[in-house]
Amino acid sequence: MPMFTRSASAKWNGTGKEGKGWVGTESKAIETAYNWQNRFGDGSGTNPEEMVAAAHAACFNMKLAFVLDGMGMTADEINTSSALTTDKAPGDWTITKIHLTTTAKIPNGDDAKLQEAVENAKANCPISRALNAEITVDAKLV
User: Fold this and answer.
1) Are 26 and 8 in contact (CB under 8 A)?
2) Model-level pTM?
3) DSSP states of 3-72
4) Average pLDDT value for the chain
């Protein structure tokens, strides 16, 4: 498979706290505003960390499906939630942890094989590989 590129863009106007921004993707799947309140407060709307968490959950699910397929198991459904922690690390704000919680509905599934597949997906999904954060996963068959 050849290399591919995906793109997105963002714009910001004003100060860090009072300003506002816009973020969009090439596919137009995301086109939304964001601001300080959405990111650090309790405002409604998205923020960069939330989008990373969503991208990680989606990427992990797809990688897990491929790994399971390679092990001879096909999941009817994989559900993953991603809890991303940002902390004031030495220097500046940093994504320090991501915890994935996954359930997989696999006919005649084997929990030991699921856990093996989960570790593979955790280590090898492209978003995991791009992040410099502690990644943990709780996974169970349903």
Assistant:
1) yes
2) 0.93
3) -----EEEEEES-TTT-EEEEEETTSS-EEEEEHHHHHSS-SS--HHHHHHHHHHHHHHHHHHHHHHHTT
4) 94
pLDDT at 90: 80
Q: What is the DSSP letter of 123?
A: H
DSSP letter at 122 equals H
Question: What's the rounded Cα separation, in Å, for the pair 136 and 85?
Answer: 12
* 46-49: long-range contacts, CB 8 A cutoff, minimum separation 24: 48/23, 49/84, 49/86, 49/95
Mean pLDDT of 78-100: 93
103: enclosing H helix or E strand: strand 93-105
